[in-house]
């Protein structure tokens, strides 16, 4: 079984699965259960200033999106940072770290955008023995209205400024947690780097209204007839998170900035996908909230099996491996031609590929009297929609036409040469190939 | 007092009352809302869905299941009733395993079809329980139609005609409406007087009068109806039960359909007499319904004797399994050649059969089963068919629109040629004949 020990910013943990700063990491009781279940690390629920504790709504706090069979696809929440006294949290963190020295314990912090506030609290928290800090610049509700959370994360100058204060206040690693509620994630990521942050973690939750109660005419979750946007997380946000992680990982300004990947990690495979796109580890919340802490056992065994199968002996063997293959549209090979292929043995004859292609695509699938579905190569543009709507995995696949074959749709011979939009004759700004 | 199950002869009360109640409760319990949601989620919303093609009434199954999945049972039920006004009964009695559910792509994919029948019942029950009748009657057309038989074909025809604004009088030979839904289906498939409730619900459309104990050829004639009405629909089903050609008059020999009807009409199952050893001759649904219910009433040994092999049996694989699970023994490739007993039946002698060049022949290999009751379930034929009509294979000959050879006379259901003898097929034929009657009455072609 592969060794999953992962080193992130010099912080070693027995596996790359950390629990994200969120309700599951709000107190000692939960965190001890998490470590007993096998989680490699925990980012403690965000600590705030000393003083009157934060106040939460008295329910409900979560909304949800469900898929078939009521599978939870996403949660949204409007819970704030920890509502327990700072001192209680610090005492608990100290005890937990002492009892689990091999696990990562990160303190998530959010205080007002004032130098003194940050510089005062970080050394105090460091006394718990924690391994590092995560600056919560992502929380999109409740705290943002008070000039914290995503209100900071949406202004790159603030990110840079606060990151710098924090690096001046502590020797421990500082991770900046990024909000996805921005136009371009590179701006905050670059700001974090300029401020001296050791890493970024992303994504925080996405502003959302999950549903509307059509009787009370109010967004869910509804509190006394009113609702507000919450932060969305869970499997549905994974594609957004993967893209943002990859953008940072391949951006020349930030490519050496370590990333902790967050956003819908539910299985070992999700974790592996984040990591090959450049994340040094992953943080999980919704999967634990849906299935309990035990879910990490599948992540551990799954990642190990995959590493064994691939011959990887350390997570560092594959972190970032897919980054070179993330490119811009203009560099995609326009000479690469594929066609859909339907396995008649696997086809259950539901006809969804036909409906999708006939109604919404290119009329490239025919249906016979006895429900045999066949791809017409002279119409197929290889859009992949049939593959995506087919309920049987691998029943429809994409076949690459070899060089020299004729693409029946265009009548042209498939070239084995790479050619992209930058050199395409239809591109007004094309530069002639050298 | 309970009679011993081992008592010979045909006696009542072989099982204590609580056991009888349990034995005759709903075969498939209705889905609860959670179960319905889970079941509905499995539907793939297929294009030109195979289940829909397999349904004789062409219910838009993917649409009604999606309507259930999205929490609109009323809309789902309307989708069903638009095609099949007896969708509630069909949800209970359709051999879905050989129709929609056999065609379901998830049967192909996983050997586990979407539970279409139970979902249909969920939707239709929900709406019927609310008392909602989702259709309005059109303005009266001034046209009148006589319908013979208040079974599935006649009711479906009458409802559609009434909905289109025609005035309908239904003539029914029996004291109650419903036809085989009321008299011909195993009790555990239609509990709590569902057949009558369904008729009452259906009649809410208005414009339909049912006259009971009015039998064609006895109280009414086809000529009289043709004279009195603008159109006539014949949907009286089949009557006479085929004889075995043995000593059919012997005490203990009876028709399975009569046994099933008597059981359905019984208000006290502990008073239903049943033999200790029962043999049912036949291979269709009626044979299975009779055999299973004989067992459930407390018969010690129940045997179905069928002249051909398992694969040729008209009762579906599901029905055969149901019979086996209730302790009914099915003997294949056997034919009764004699009965024993002095006055009362004591045994049935059977011979094994062989297929020689496609023909069934008896072998010399014979044996005698002890039996004190024998049910005939080898099919029914059209009895007292009115004169002046053409026939095909013993049934009233109709064209694709359900029209007979006589002007102004349509027919559908079991008495008419074409289609399987199923409730759902009868509904489709009644409905389609109504549409054609409407076209003709309104001056179309």
How would you describe this structure in keywords?
heterodimer, A: 434 residues, alpha/beta, TIM Barrel, Alpha-Beta Plaits, 2 domains, eight-stranded parallel β-barrel, four-stranded antiparallel β-sheet, B: 445 residues, FAD/NAD(P)-binding domain, Fumarate Reductase Iron-sulfur Protein, Chain B, domain 2, 3 domains, five-stranded parallel β-sheet, globular, iron-sulfur (chain A)
Brief rundown of the structure:
Chain A: This is dihydrouracil dehydrogenase (NAD(+)). The complex is a heterodimer of chains A (434) and B (445). Chain A is α/β, with parallel strands linked by helices.
Explain what this protein looks like in three dimensions.
The complex is a heterodimer of chains A (434) and B (445). Chain A has 434 residues and is an alpha/beta fold. Chain A contains twelve helices and 22 strands. Helix content of chain A is 28%, strand content 21%. In chain A, helix 3 crosses helix 5, helix 5 packs parallel to helix 6 and helix 8 crosses helix 10. Chain A is globular, with a radius of gyration of 25 Å. With 445 residues, chain B is an alpha/beta fold. In chain B, a hairpin with a 2-residue loop joins strand 15 and strand 16. The mean pLDDT of chain B is 94. Classes of the chains: A alpha/beta (434), B alpha/beta (445). The interface between A and B is medium-sized, with 14 and 15 residues. Chain B: One of its GO terms (molecular function) is oxidoreductase activity. Chain B: InterPro entries: DPD_II, FAD/NAD-bd_sf, FAD/NAD-binding_dom, Helical_ferredxn. Chain B: This is Dihydropyrimidine dehydrogenase. Chain A: InterPro entries: 4Fe4S_Fe-S-bd, 4Fe4S_Fe_S_CS, Aldolase_TIM, Dihydroorotate_DH_cat.
């Amino acid at each position: 079984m592969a060794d999953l020990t992962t080193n992130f910013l010099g912080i070693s943990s027995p596996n790359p699965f950390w629990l994200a700063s969120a309700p599951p990491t709000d107190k000692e009781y939960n965190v001890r259960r998490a470590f007993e279940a096998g989680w490699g690390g925990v980012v403690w629920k965000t600590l705030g200033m000393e003083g009157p504790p934060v106040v939460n709504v008295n329910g409900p706090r979560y909304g949800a999106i469900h898929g078939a069979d009521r599978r939870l696809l996403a949660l949204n929440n409007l819970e704030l940072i920890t509502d327990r006294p700072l001192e209680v949290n610090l005492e608990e963190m100290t005890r937990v770290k002492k009892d689990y020295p091999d696990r990562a314990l990160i303190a998530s912090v959010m205080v007002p955008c004032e130098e003194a506030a940050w510089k005062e609290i970080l050394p105090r928290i460091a006394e718990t023995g924690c391994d590092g800090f995560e600056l919560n610049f992502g929380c999109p509700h409740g705290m943002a209205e008070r000039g914290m959370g995503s209100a900071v994360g949406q202004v790159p100058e603030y990110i840079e400024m606060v990151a710098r204060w924090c690096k001046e206040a502590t020797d421990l690693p500082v991770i900046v947690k990024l909000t996805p509620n921005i136009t371009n994630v590179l701006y905050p990521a670059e700001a974090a780097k300029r401020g001296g942050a050791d890493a970024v973690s992303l994504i925080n939750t996405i502003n959302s209204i999950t549903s509307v109660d059509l009787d009370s005419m109010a967004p869910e979750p509804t509190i006394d007839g009113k609702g507000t946007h919450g932060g969305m997380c869970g499997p549905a946000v994974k594609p957004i998170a993967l893209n943002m992680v990859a953008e940072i990982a391949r951006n020349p300004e930030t490519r050496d900035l370590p990333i902790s990947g967050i956003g819908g990690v539910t299985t070992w495979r999700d974790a592996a996908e984040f990591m090959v796109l450049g994340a040094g580890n992953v943080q999980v919340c919704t999967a634990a909230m849906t299935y309990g802490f035990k879910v990490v056992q599948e992540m551990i065994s799954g990642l190990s099996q995959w590493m064994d199968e691939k011959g990887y002996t350390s997570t560092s063997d594959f972190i970032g491996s897919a980054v070179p293959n993330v490119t811009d549209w203009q560099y995609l090979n326009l000479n690469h031609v594929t066609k859909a292929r339907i396995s008649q043995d696997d086809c259950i004859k539901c006809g969804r590929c036909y409906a999708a292609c006939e109604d919404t695509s290119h009329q490239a699938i025919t249906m016979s009297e006895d429900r045999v579905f066949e791809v017409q190569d002279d119409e197929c543009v290889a859009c992949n929609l049939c593959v995506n709507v087919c309920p049987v995995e691998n029943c429809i696949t994409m076949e690459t036409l070899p060089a020299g074959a004729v693409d029946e749709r265009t009548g042209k011979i498939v070239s084995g040469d790479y050619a992209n939009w930058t050199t395409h004759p239809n591109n007004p700004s094309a530069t002639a190939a050298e | 007092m309970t009679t011993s199950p081992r008592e010979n002869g045909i006696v009542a009360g072989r099982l204590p009352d609580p056991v009888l109640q349990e034995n005759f409760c709903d075969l498939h319990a209705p889905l609860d809302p959670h179960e319905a949601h889970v079941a509905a989620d499995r539907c793939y919303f297929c294009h030109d869905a195979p289940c829909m093609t397999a349904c004789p009434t062409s219910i838009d199954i993917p649409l009604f299941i999606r309507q259930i999945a999205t929490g609109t049972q009323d809309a789902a039920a309307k989708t069903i009733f638009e095609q099949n006004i007896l969708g509630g009964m069909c949800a209970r009695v359709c051999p879905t395993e050989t129709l929609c559910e056999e065609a379901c792509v998830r049967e192909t994919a996983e050997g586990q079809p979407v539970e279409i029948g139970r979902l249909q019942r969920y939707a239709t029950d929900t709406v019927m329980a609310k008392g909602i009748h989702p259709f309005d009657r059109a303005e009266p057309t001034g046209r009148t139609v006589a319908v013979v038989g208040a079974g599935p074909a006649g009711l479906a025809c009458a409802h559609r005609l009434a909905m289109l604004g025609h005035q309908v009088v239904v003539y029914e030979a029996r004291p109650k409406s419903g036809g085989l839904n009321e008299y011909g289906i195993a009790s555990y498939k239609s509990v709590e007087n569902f057949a009558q409730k369904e008729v009452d619900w259906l009649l809410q459309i208005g414009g339909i009068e049912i006259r009971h104990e009015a039998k064609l050829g006895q109280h009414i004639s086809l000529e009289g109806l043709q004279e009195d009405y603008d159109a006539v629909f014949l949907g009286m089903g089949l009557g006479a039960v085929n004889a075995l050609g043995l000593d059919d008059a012997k005490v203990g020999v009876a028709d399975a359909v009569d046994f099933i009807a008597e059981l359905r009409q019984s208000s006290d199952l502990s008073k239903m007499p049943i033999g200790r050893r029962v043999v049912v001759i036949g291979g269709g649904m009626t044979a299975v319904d009779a055999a299973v219910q004989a067992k459930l009433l407390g018969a010690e040994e129940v045997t179905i004797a069928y002249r051909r092999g398992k694969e040729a049996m008209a009762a579906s694989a599901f029905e055969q399994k149901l019979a086996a699970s209730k302790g009914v023994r099915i003997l294949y490739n056997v034919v009764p050649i004699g009965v024993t007993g002095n006055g009362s039946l004591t045994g049935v002698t059977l011979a094994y059969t062989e297929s020689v060049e496609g023909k069934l022949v008896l072998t010399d290999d014979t044996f005698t089963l002890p039996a004190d009751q024998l049910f005939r379930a080898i099919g029914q034929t059209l009895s007292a068919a009115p004169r002046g009509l053409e026939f095909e294979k013993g049934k009233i000959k109709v064209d694709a629109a359900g029209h007979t050879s006589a002007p102004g006379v349509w027919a559908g259901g079991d008495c008419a040629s074409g289609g399987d003898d199923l409730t759902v097929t009868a509904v489709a034929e009644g409905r389609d004949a109504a549409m054609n009657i409407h076209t003709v009455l309104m001056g179309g072609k």
